[in-house]
UniProtKB/TrEMBL annotation:
Coiled-coil boundaries: none
Phosphoprotein found in the keyword field: yes
GO CC, any one term: nuclear speck
Biased composition (Polar residues): 244-257
Species classification: Eukaryota, Viridiplantae, Streptophyta, Embryophyta, Tracheophyta
Domain RRM: 16-94
Keyword Transmembrane among record annotations: no
One GO MF term: mRNA binding
Gene: LOC104605089
Renumbered residue ranges of the record's region Disordered: 105-257
Broad class of where this protein is predominantly found: nucleus
Biased composition regions of type Basic and acidic residues, renumbered to the chain: 125-135, 145-159, 171-186, 215-231
Alphabetical keyword list: mRNA processing, mRNA splicing, Nucleus, Phosphoprotein, RNA-binding
Protein name: Serine/arginine-rich splicing factor SC35-like
Pfam families for this protein: RRM_1
Amino acid sequence: MSHFGRSGPPDIRDTYSLLVLNITFRTTADDLFPLFDKYGKVVDIFIPRDRRTGDSRGFAFVRYKYADEAQKAVEKLDGRTVDGREIMVQFAKYGPNAEPIHKGRIIEIFPKTRGRSRSRSPRPRYRDDYRDRDYRRRSRSRSRGRYDRDRYRGKERDYRRRSKSRSGSPDYHRGRGRGRYDDEHRRSRSRSFESASPVRRSPSPRRSPSPRRTPSRDESPERRSRDERSPSPRSVSPRGQRVGSRSPSPRNSDAEE
DNA sequence: GTTGAGCGTT
């Protein structure tokens, strides 16, 4: 009985959706259920979570059966400290279909399935739209993360409070990257070649982090040949220095190789 | 292991 939203939206014909923000990432529906259920009849609780990691996004949706109970819960649970974090309870402004709702109450869910198709307006692509926005917002949060927090600490709260307006485009310079998958992937690849890592200051000869190495190619004479022909800066040094530093005996060097 | 603006799924 704790599986809320696991079977999709049960029945939200006459339910009021409450948006719970500022909740911890570890808070689950089970933790919110007893809290909200105490103030009213909770028909469903849904907590959006990431599709890749599966972690909670930090907010939850609580559906009440009656508006009066929902309102009460908002006033009672709004500002309550849950799991050590102050949560913010308020009526949902948008419905599951990205449609504006009235005080958390869903006006109509599926206008199309209601009898004949009176509306000739085609249904917009909710999935595609929400996917795009979701990924973008997520990456932004993850990207900024603690870097800004350490800089602004408590001031950033005031800053974002004023600039919280949805009208403002939080897209600073996210780039045309569709997501962070490609971005991270690209950077990772680049790192392999060039030392883009600040911590990586040692020119580790191990350029093959993958344990899976192809013996055929690795042991191939071509590879070795190239390696010798394209030696490191140190090896590229004149023979006198290299030989004198590495092998005091030129004879040994010859025998070794 | 981390994070913190905001509005949702089988």
